[in-house]
């Protein structure tokens, strides 16, 4: 039987060390007597800021390949994550009644922050124009101020998200009813990160005046009084419950949309700045590596600490290390470690 025991545990805060000499002095403590001549596993853990995780993921295998040339090092294995989930694309929903100013503010956000603007209404109108089989159906729904079946809208949104490959999306005018919401949740699962909802609050009489004005030049089939009133009904009956749903989750940022565009924009920026801050503070991604060696922990981990510091600078990557010797018991070991003997 194999006995495997933790022999040494070391913690190296790469970013916190002035140099490897300073780190090496504190990290190696023998927990179970003098080194044996057995095979050892050095488990290295790297905590990498989310913003750098993708780059670190690309760098790590290349670096380890070079490290394998060191005498005494028998093998290396990256345990977790094999491919770290790239930071999920972030989504902000933009909601509010027809004419509340969603499109106007979205355009400002895109210009300043580089978000990708996906207007569900624009996507539906483009699909209608493309002459596809569902074009006629979309046409009827829009003219009636009704909400197009979610299968159509979610597909258009997801196609646009996937085709774009961007990291931050403004989804404008969606989800508009419970059917939209459940359809979206079903399709996206946990692939996207919903940061919150920008909600432009505006009374009907203000929105009506704006839409009638917009109707003079927009060419939209629904910017006429009859369609506008139908849209208001749909908004009150179907979209407001969605706002209540997100409000319960603390995700709604309500902005008074009746003011001048620039005033609304000033408040919009406050909300987006807070989202940006939240995205910067994403939890770090952890990578784990097993090095198989004949040697003791110190030379390898100190060497890696020095290389990581050199490559990534201070504070970006935090590293800790533990060493296990392999002798005659497997009980103390996790499956991950055993797998690394494959
Ligand atoms: N804060 C505002 N004050 C006055 N007019 C506005 C304001 N925001 C938008 N508008 C105008 O009102 C109309 C509707 O705005 P829009 O952004 O298209 O609304 P939505 O996308 O919510 O339907 C547009 O003609 C736009 O120029
Ligand atoms: O998720 C959506 C978004 C829009 N629409 C349809 O598109 C119209 C126009 O929506 P848009 O957001 O472009 O304009 P708004 O009514 O907010 O001014 C709506 O009335 C609906 O008929 C829809 O069915 N589902």
TrEMBL record:
Keyword annotations: ATP-binding, Cytoplasm, Kinase, Nucleotide-binding, Nucleus, Pyrimidine biosynthesis, Transferase
GO biological process, one term: 'de novo' pyrimidine nucleobase biosynthetic process
GO molecular function list: ATP binding; nucleobase-containing compound kinase activity; phosphotransferase activity, phosphate group as acceptor
Principal localisation: cytoplasm
Keyword Kinase included in the entry's annotation: yes
Region of interest: LID: 213-223
EC number: 2.7.4.14
Cofactor note: Binds 1 Mg(2+) ion per monomer.
Name of the protein this chain belongs to: UMP-CMP kinase
